[in-house]
Amino acid sequence: MKVLAINCSPRKNWNTAQLLKSALEGAKSVGAEVEYIDLYDLNFAGCRSCMLCKRKGAERCHCYWKDELSPVIDKVFSANVLFIGTPIYLGRPTSQYFAFMERLHFSSLSYDDYSNYFKGNVNVGMFITMNATKEFYDKLYKAKFESYADDFKALNGEVSLYPCYNTLQVKDYSKFNMASFNEEEKKKVHDEHFSIDLENAYNLGVRLNR
Ligand SMILES: Cc1cc2nc3c(=O)[nH]c(=O)nc-3n(C[C@H](O)[C@H](O)[C@H](O)COP(=O)(O)O)c2cc1C
């Protein structure tokens, strides 16, 4: 099994990254070959509308723009499992996530009849991390993020969405103007729940690779 994890958070070892790394550990434990990519390390932008992927005779599911994202798109289409993680920024996934998704989807979309060129099968585990509590998420974000996760149905596999609530955003809240957050409460939630989230991520890594 080939497993790819894409971190769509700019932070390399914080909440989103740790969940993705734990999922990869789970995948490795059942023999998968894994690769981890920090999206913010790559030099790329959204679709340039070059239309090369829509040329007659063009390779399907391939982005022709020559930059650091196109090889990642090839890797997604040839993986067995994709783990993708994004923090919630202002109620949505990060901007780099959207740029990536634009390129991924356009390269597999037929402009003849709007069908899906991709005929393979990639299971997807999507992690989202946020300041929001579960209650807030359920009320304001859940429907929206389930719909973002649905975009991955175009990869024809199982899609599993894992929301990780009320994360620790900074190590020391006293250094910042962040009075709307209660540091003690944040740390308590982190200490009690984040290890469970990591374990759940690990287990998802195992399950999607069976
Ligand atoms: C620019 C920015 C916008 C954010 N907007 C939201 C938001 O709308 N809702 C929310 O619950 N958390 C929001 N957060 C908090 C992050 O989603 C949260 O800290 C997340 O766990 C960060 O992921 P990371 O630790 O992997 O970087 C925001 C953080 C930043 C930096």
From TrEMBL:
Taxonomically, the superkingdom here is Bacteria
Please name the InterPro entries in this protein's record: Flavoprotein-like_sf (IPR029039), FMN_Rdtase-like_dom (IPR005025), ISF_SsuE-like (IPR051796)
Q: Which UniProt keywords apply?
A: Flavoprotein, FMN
Q: Which GO terms describe its molecular function?
A: oxidoreductase activity
Which Pfam family, giving just one, matches this sequence?
A: FMN_red
Q: Which residues form the NADPH-dependent FMN reductase-like domain?
A: 1-111
Q: What PANTHER family does this protein's entry cite?
A: IRON-SULFUR FLAVOPROTEIN (PTHR43278:SF2), NAD(P)H-DEPENDENT FMN-CONTAINING OXIDOREDUCTASE YWQN-RELATED (PTHR43278)
Q: What is this protein called?
A: NADPH-dependent FMN reductase
Q: What is the lineage of its organism?
A: Bacteria, Bacillati, Bacillota, Clostridia, Lachnospirales
